[in-house]
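Field guide to reading this record: the first block holds the primary sequence, the second block holds the structure written as discrete tokens, and the final block holds curator observations. Each block starts with its own label. This record concerns Stomatin-like protein 2-like, catalogued under organism Homarus americanus.

BLOCK 1 — SEQUENCE
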Amino acid sequence: MFAATLRGAARPCRRFLQSRGQPLIDAARWRSHLPLNTVVLFVPQQEAWIVERMGKFHRALEPGINLLIPVLDKVRYVQSLKEIAIDVPKQAAITSDNVTLSIDGVLYLRILDPYRASYGVEDPEFAITQLAQTTMRSELGKISLDYVFRERENLNMNIVEVINKASEAWGITCLRYEIRDIKLPQRIQDAMQMQVEAERKKRAVILESEGVREAEINVAEGKRQSRILASEADRIEQVNSAEGQAEGLSILCNALIHKQGLNAASLSLAHSYIEAFQNLAQKNNTLILPSNVADVSGIVGSAVSVYKSLAKTLHVNDERKGEPEVPIPEKEDEKESQKIYD
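BLOCK 2 — STRUCTURE
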């Protein structure tokens, strides 16, 4: 009851300090208050009360009911074993590239050893706050400004590691440290903004050039495919035309094998000759004509002679290769064809 009464009496004093503009760290020091010295004490959970007997450390009271000897025993310190969050005030720091910035943070700590926290340092929270500020300035002086923004988490871990090494003798451990706000000079902010804009313009130009390149590649690929398809179509057309001509020649060859084949060939040749002269006569061109234009039978006879010469040559080659013989026109056939045109 008396402890609760004293705890309630400490609240107005804490509000008074906060209203006067004192830092939060000063108000936090009032959280640990001393109870009245009585015979029976009830220690709250997650608190450790340090008892001195005749001015010398005697023991640390556990949570629950505890008995003290009046006059001889005295509760000297009350330590909270809960995790405590402390605001680290803003401070100026200089990075390795000579940039001055204002930075603050939040420190989370816990008391592990109430004895060392009571007798190892006068004011544990104030000491740990000052240590955090000095450590932060020291760590920021080792890195550049870009590293501060890029490796913020690593910077927090380095600060926690350094604080824990120094605060081990105080019975306090730093659980984590978080950088809350970083304020840069206006000229540095303007320079960073210009850098960001330049980087974005660079990316835009690169993306535009890549788009143009991809478009040109697509157009070239389309032309290539078009030419390939056109060449394939021409090849197929030529192959089909050649196959058609070959088939026609084969049919013509089979027709010439018969007895009346030479007469049919002579008739076709004469018809083509007359048709060619008809087409030439329709155009106003200078022509070179043979002397015997009217002698159709003579021209056909010359053509038949050429055919006979070719047939003899093919006959000799077929005998060598063992292929079927090509018939050689007989004189009777030649005479019959001559009669047709006479």
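BLOCK 3 — OBSERVATIONS
The two ends are 154 Å apart (CA to CA).
Residues 1-82 form one domain.
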